[in-house]
């Protein structure tokens, strides 16, 4: 098929209004999500477990700045065995695994349903408006050639087998704008806003289920305890004054 001459008025009365409509819809969706969001305050016991793991991890990563005796004392505090040492270390406490309970938590399920509902309702409304007001429009042409595999993605709502693949329909442009302007929306609304379409779609499709499975305390305690027990301490500030002054450091016996 030959070249199609696109009316410049399409840019002013279709393309720009679609972009403006999408921006307004995204901002409204963000503020609605903020209003529906409830404060998720973690339980005190879970916060204590996380802080314990953080302290043990910081000790393991920065132990080179304390003496060997100080490191051994702190290591004993975290990893001591009641059977061998007579004292139970902090990382050997019996803690419950709340990972599966978090998945069945009604509050978490309600929060996920709110996010899905906000995204789906606004998306359906926008698709209806675009299809009603701008349906059947060929809006623009991409400045490069494409294969026939992209025809279904770029020409939704237009059933013309002879139309060149490089032309984009109104409905396809809406999806391109929706998935392509997430970076701009992050600049406009701030990073980590409630209206990131990629994250909302990820939540809707269930790809982000692993992030909400909860805190597996027994596994994390065991992993950190083993790492701390096997860690070899080496004092980095030994002979610091001689290193600073440039004197030769005597070799260890």
From TrEMBL:
Main location: membrane
Topological relation to the membrane, as annotated: Multi-pass membrane protein
Record flagged with keyword Transmembrane helix: yes
Bilayer-spanning residue ranges: 13-32, 119-140, 171-189
Name the UniProt record assigns to this protein: ER membrane protein complex subunit 3
GO biological process: protein folding in endoplasmic reticulum
InterPro entries referenced in this protein's UniProt entry, alphabetically: EMC3 (IPR008568), EMC3/TMCO1 (IPR002809)
């Amino acid at each position: 098929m030959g070249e199609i001459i696109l009316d410049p008025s399409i840019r002013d009365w279709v393309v720009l209004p679609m972009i403006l409509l999408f921006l307004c819809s995204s901002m409204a969706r963000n503020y609605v999500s903020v209003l529906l969001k409830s404060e998720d305050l973690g339980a005190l016991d879970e916060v204590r477990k996380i802080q314990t793991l953080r302290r043990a991890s910081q000790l393991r990563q920065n132990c080179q700045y304390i003496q060997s005796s100080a490191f051994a004392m702190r290591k004993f505090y975290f990893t001591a065995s009641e059977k061998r040492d007579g004292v139970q270390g902090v990382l050997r406490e019996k803690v419950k695994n709340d990972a599966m309970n978090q998945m069945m938590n009604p509050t978490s399920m309600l929060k996920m349903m709110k996010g899905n509902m906000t995204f789906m309702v606004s998306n359906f409304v926008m698709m209806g408006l675009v299809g009603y007001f701008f349906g059947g429009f060929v809006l623009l042409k991409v400045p490069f050639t494409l294969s026939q595999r992209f025809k279904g993605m770029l020409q939704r709502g237009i059933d013309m087998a002879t139309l060149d693949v490089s032309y984009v329909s109104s409905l396809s442009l809406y999806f391109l704008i929706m998935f392509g302007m997430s970076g701009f929306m992050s600049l406009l609304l701030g990073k980590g806003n409630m209206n990131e379409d990629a994250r909302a779609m990820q939540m809707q499709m269930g790809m982000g289920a692993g992030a909400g499975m909860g805190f597996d305390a027994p596994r994390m305690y065991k992993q950190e305890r083993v790492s701390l027990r096997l860690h070899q301490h080496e004092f980095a500030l030994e002979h610091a004054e001689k290193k600073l002054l440039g004197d030769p450091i005597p070799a260890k016996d």
